[in-house]
Design brief:
The protein is mostly helical. Helix content is about 65%, strand content about 0%. Helix 2 crosses helix 3, helix 4 runs antiparallel to helix 6 and helix 7 crosses helix 9. Bound molecules: zinc ion (2 copies). One zinc ion (ZN) binds next to helix 9.
Length: about 230
């Protein structure tokens, strides 16, 4: 897969990443419908407003552009990937990526709530007090660009293992969908264990959509606890 990605030309890689990101959105639409049938607590998958569709499509296009920028940085040597990582390095790099991105996203999210930035961009995401999986994709284009740029810049800081990058991207998608699905998809025991380990349960971000002064974290509750913004 890595060799195949390296061998593509620019036009092919643009097509690949647009299709991949579109597939992720289609997957989220399907996941929302499946969850509504499987979980009694899941909110019904109502039709999305036109504005929300346009914002979700713009997020897909921006995420595709960010992916292509990452590929260009990789091809030109600005971004190095460890293709021969040991199991220890894969676990270590995954943890480093989760904690680094978690901290950086917490800071970015606090900035997004500053009055000038909120009324300019982040308010769009907060128009949805009753969250649903697709809310993950509904954000101002500048916000999508900010989050994506942060990800590519983080990848240039160290030669992370390619497996850790893939695992992180899967975790990021799972946490994003779980944080917006409107119910807890976890069994009761896991819903108790996760907060004890400072891992964000879905309810943590639901609460942020109801009370915008608390719970800014994404993957963990660490930074909110330290900054006393946790509820
Ligand atoms: Zn927010
Ligand atoms: Zn949200």
């Amino acid at each position: 897969m890595v060799d195949w990605l390296w061998s593509l030309n620019l036009a092919q890689v643009v097509l690949f990443f647009v299709l991949l990101n579109a597939l992720i959105l289609v997957g989220a639409i399907a996941a929302e419908k499946i969850a509504a049938r499987l979980f009694a607590a899941a909110p019904p998958a109502k039709p999305l407003r036109v504005q929300a569709w346009l914002l979700a499509i713009s997020t897909v296009l921006i995420n595709s552009a960010i992916s292509v920028a990452g590929w260009l940085a990789w091809k030109s040597g600005f971004l190095l990937l460890n293709l021969n990582a040991t199991p220890f390095e894969i676990v270590r790099d995954t943890l480093v990526l989760v904690l680094t991105m978690d901290f950086a996203l917490y800071i970015l999210h606090r900035i997004a709530h500053a009055r000038w930035f909120y009324s300019w961009a982040h308010y769009l995401h907060h128009e949805y007090r009753e969250v649903r999986m697709l809310t993950l994709f509904v954000m101002h284009p500048l916000e999508a660009l900010g989050f994506g740029s942060l990800w590519v810049v983080t990848l240039t800081l160290f030669s992370f293992s390619v497996e850790a990058v893939v695992v992180f991207l899967q975790l990021n998608l799972w946490f994003g969908l779980a944080a917006h699905c409107g119910f807890s998809p976890y069994p009761a025991w896991l819903s108790k264990v996760l907060p004890a380990l400072s891992v964000s349960p879905p309810a943590f971000h639901f609460e942020h959509h109801r009370n915008e002064t608390v719970n800014f974290g994404f993957y963990t509750t660490i930074w909110d606890k330290l900054s006393k913004t946790s509820l």
